[in-house]
Amino acid sequence: MTTPANQTNPEIGPAKSLDQSAVVIAGGTSGVGLAAAHHFVASGTRRLALIGRNKERGEAALAAVKEKAQAPDLKAVFLSADTNDVEQATRVMSEAHTALGGIDVLINTTAGSYVPKLLFRTEVADILPMLIQQAIGPMLMSRLVLPYMREQKSGVILNVASDAAKVPTPGESIIGAAMAAIVTFSRTLAIEAKRDGIRVNALTPSLIGNTDVYTRVMNDPFSAKLFSNAAKLASLGVAQPEDLAALMVFLASPAAARLTGQAISLNGGISAA
What we know:
This protein is of the alpha/beta class. It contains 8 helices and 7 strands, in the order βαβαβαβαβαβαααβ.
């Protein structure tokens, strides 16, 4: 096998093009995940799995992707699971691999249901669920996809966290801890997995407009004040799901073949962390 220029492991082949890639999106039934699904299909991807907890919303999302794509050769499926649960995550990863005939790109966009709250106002009983809802899914799914990607000596994993991982923000002590866990996990996995041709990056946006999370935080008085002030700093505009989706397509493509272990903020200028 010919070794690509500047590549030291001869077992690793060239990065796969998007039209050759099977893409799995956890949290792919709304918001950033659904926008990513549309962007990947528009960029040539023809094998796609959307994972979500709500079957009705998942089937609607799948139908929307198929309708917009107008591609007879598109093989797209919806699989129902809570990826924070070990048994469900294990099952759905196996189902996705079987349905698509492989997995080349895994995107984890799942988000918790909690809003920012000062720590002394946070119920002690809520701390563990907050961490589990936000951080465990990406870790489980990344671990479960590794055997497939290691066997084929290629793969891309993209985990969505937030700027709370980098910028201490009042009200986000627990959420920020979970986001920092995702970022450090992703960076460490990138170093572990590079020898098998697997690239791992984290995306750390701040506000993302037109999402369920945006609506939820803006309906809470404390977090609405917090993020309204942050939005004023986004001189380039508050990020939209389509912005994140476009970045994901780039990171999964051969154009980013040597980019791994990074935590990339797309936040319109809110911070430069």
